[in-house]
Amino acid sequence: MQNRNIILLVFIVIVLCFKVNQCTHLKGTFKSNEFFKFLVKFGFQKTDRHQADATHGYIFGNITSDQNFPVPVTFAVLQRPYFLKYYQNRVLYDKEEACKRMFSKISTHAYEGKCKPRGQDYLRRIPCPKGKLCLDEDKAWRVVKGHQFTYVIEDFKQPSFWYVSMVACYLNMTTCEWHHYEPPSRQYTIHYDLWLVNGNPNISSYNTLTYQFSFDRQNTLELYLLFWLCYMVLVPLQCHAVKTQKHPVTKLFTASLLLDFIALCLILIHTLKFALDGEGYPKLAMAGDIFDILSRTSFMLLLLLLAKGWAVTRLELSWKPLVFAIWLCYGIVHILLYVWNLTEVDIIEDIDEYQTWPGWLIIVFRSLIMVWFLYELRTTMLYEHNMQKLNFLLHFGASSLVWFIYLPILALIALHVSALWRFKLLLGITYSADCFAYCVMAHLLWPTRSEQYFLLKGPSSADIEELDEFNEAPHIVNNSYSSLSTMSSIEICRFDEAPKNKAVSA
Question: Average pLDDT in the 159-179 region?
Fold first, then answer.
């Protein structure tokens, strides 16, 4: 057990070391020896025709440098159709050719005062002069106060993702051709401080719950608050139950519930702060994700133990190493999937964690565990003849099957859902299924009910063997019948031991 804890701790430390930039308030540097730097992918909401000014998307901020660049480099804000070719050509070894190919499609549509006076507002020359607007800002009244540039995102048809990046390419104003900026021996550094928001920052009537969030993450704060309120009722009740009935099953279930509650609290704290400043606590959110994984794996362990009849029909657990090995493997694969999603899945791709090969692997693994769970539960029910225990196992199996099967079905549905809506769909259904499973389990394991079918006391090893043989005997119909037979045998013994002289005198 100690080795397992060490392994899990190592995975937690590894994951927390990764820096995942999902902030809408971005701060950092871009150095001249870097050719390309991707900053963020952000979803902007659909513009409401009746409240256009209040529902526009905005990108604004400051981009400066302490050195004087011989030629400016480029800051690009692009939609997906233009961004894909631009992004794919960044890896070319010949950077001069890379710049030409990256901007070959964009140049036909992007605005440039001299080369393309009727284009779209996609590009900015950076760094901007300190204390002044960027060179491409020709309408000072549109720039958010206190900043050097502003993009206004307007789309009356649908929400859309926009991609923000910096690249060491510049446009020759004479030839209107793109070239690679080759840094001299001295390194130049650009400092940026950017905001991406859904709503007008110049007015105070924007929605605080959606202002800082990318469209695909909007309304998630309300979901977290809703489930947090549910757990605020469920957790105290279960803590009272575990104090009333100190049983291994109850303790394991309470531990799983507390892990899930801690995970939700950590993620909620991050989301609340994110709503205020666009940054939040990313490492706190990642710790919450790890606790959520530990909660689900411990809950799965509980389901497997109960399916094998542990503490319900028998006190000794058969195939114990196999059960714990499967549980440990599932937990490790789940954490590996999380790490893979953070490090290997390109944010440019509109896929979720269950559309990668580790995601499909864990879904297949979960499905196999579900089949094994049903097999063990069926075997346990065949050797059980107590109607109260059978009733418990029946309800337990039905609710657990729902918890097992929802994820494979959800993953298949998510394949056909746009990335703009997919995260909220996965989040809502996942949390709903987990909350439902915990509520049902708390109901089934409530002390006044579970004492009817739990083996609450631990007898000696000899008694355990006799108990197992008795429970597995095919001729036993139910416990009431055995109790009646025992009482009858006691009465017969008493009658046989009665004094003979009383019978004669009678």
Answer: 91
